[in-house]
């Protein structure tokens, strides 16, 4: 039987908790890799600075989310990891992951399964971003459980302006497909849930 958490197969010394404040940098692009991370609480944004100096957000890791997985097989990090909401992360030592991948088939399979599930989630996110209508994209995001932050953060996550996000949410409420459950909080309408 496979463990729900592949990292339970690692030595206890492989994982270290790091407390973060907003603005803390966990690593920088081109810094030598030393491990991957799991968010315990808070939020970490992976970002890269383009040639023109613009910052591009590549990924937003929330509670339970892994990031810097590629560091296991890379010499340097390919982006910056910035804490955008205070909390903590678990740093998982690269050397221990590599050694356990070779010595423990159960860890190898459970870690591979975890990565495969992440690939599926990333593909689903790319599909969601390809939806041309703001209204349909937001509806898909609400259905997918993306609405766990502010409207501005949701808009950023699904690549819409916050104004377009507000307008589409209002239209979805007017259509009866989404209900406002509180200030800045929305969910699928009961009648729309039963259609699925």
From TrEMBL:
It holds the Pfam family cNMP_binding. InterPro entries: cNMP-bd_dom (IPR000595), cNMP-bd_dom_sf (IPR018490), RmlC-like_jellyroll (IPR014710), WH-like_DNA-bd_sf (IPR036388), WH_DNA-bd_sf (IPR036390). Keywords: Receptor. PROSITE patterns: CNMP_BINDING_3. Residues 23-76 form the Cyclic nucleotide-binding domain. The keyword Membrane does not apply. It comes from the Bacteria. SUPFAM superfamilies: cAMP-binding domain-like, Winged helix' DNA-binding domain. Gene3D superfamilies: Jelly Rolls (2.60.120.10), Winged helix-like DNA-binding domain superfamily/Winged helix DNA-binding domain (1.10.10.10). This is Cyclic AMP receptor protein.
